[in-house]
Amino acid sequence: xxxxxxxxxxxxxxxxxxxxxxxxxxxxxxxxxxxxxxxxxxxxxxxxxxxxxxxxxxxxxxxxxxxxxxxxxxxxx
Length: 77
Hints:
By secondary structure, the chain is α+β, with helices and mostly antiparallel strands. The protein has a single domain, classed as BMC (bacterial microcompartment) domain (Alpha-Beta Plaits). Helices cover 30% and strands 30% of the residues. It starts with a strand and ends in a 7-residue tail after the last strand.
C-alpha cells in the first residue's frame, strides 16, 4: 500500500497532504526529482499505509492538479 503522486505546485502539495492526513494517511512532501521537473515546480506526495487509488480519487475530488502517480518511487526515474 502506498506510492507517490506528483502535483503541479507546493500549494497543491500542502492541500493534498492535509486532505490525505485527515483520512489517516501518512504523507511526506518532497520536491520532485529533476527527471520529472526541470523547472523545479512539481512536488511529490509520498504516500504510506493508504491505497494509492483511493488517495488519487480523494485528491481528484478536491481538484488537486495531479501530474503523475505510481506505486514505486523508482518508477519516477
